[in-house]
Design brief:
With 117 residues, the protein is mainly alpha-helical. It has one domain. Helices cover 82% and strands 0% of the residues. The protein contains five helices and no strands. α2 packs antiparallel against α4, α2 packs parallel to α5 and α3 crosses α4.
């Protein structure tokens, strides 16, 4: 088991050696962070309600804990994709889709906060 973990960790280090992979992973995680922050700002304004039933209660009760959980889930997803032994282009495509999809929520939140959405 220890050998497998060391093998996966070495593989993840090798994959993260590529600047484009690092950039897309960073964009994915940053978009998740921005989503959490913009959601918190929107909810703190008391003009909006969280529509995600799984996340709404946690956000109301413990906003910082909700943000940490959101980032932890994003990190777990990123590590899982990095650990997969898939082709370089497929990995880039997956992270490109994840990063682009993750940017939608903070952009929608910002548009609603500014009255444009």
């Amino acid at each position: 088991m220890g050998s497998l973990v060391r093998d996966r960790a070495a593989h993840i280090r090798d994959v993260l050696a590529w600047w484009d992979v690092r950039l897309l992973v960073a964009l994915f995680c940053l978009a998740q962070l921005l989503d959490g922050v913009t959601t918190y700002i929107a909810l703190a304004s008391h003009h909006f309600q969280e529509t995600n039933p799984l996340f709404g209660g946690v956000l109301d009760a413990h906003p910082l804990a909700a943000l940490v959980v959101k980032l932890l889930v994003a990190a777990i997803v990123a590590v899982a994709v990095l650990a997969l032994r898939i082709r370089w282009r497929l990995r880039l495509a997956v992270f490109t889709v994840f990063a682009a999809a993750s940017l939608v929520a903070p952009l929608v939140n910002l548009s609603r906060l500014t009255g444009r959405g």
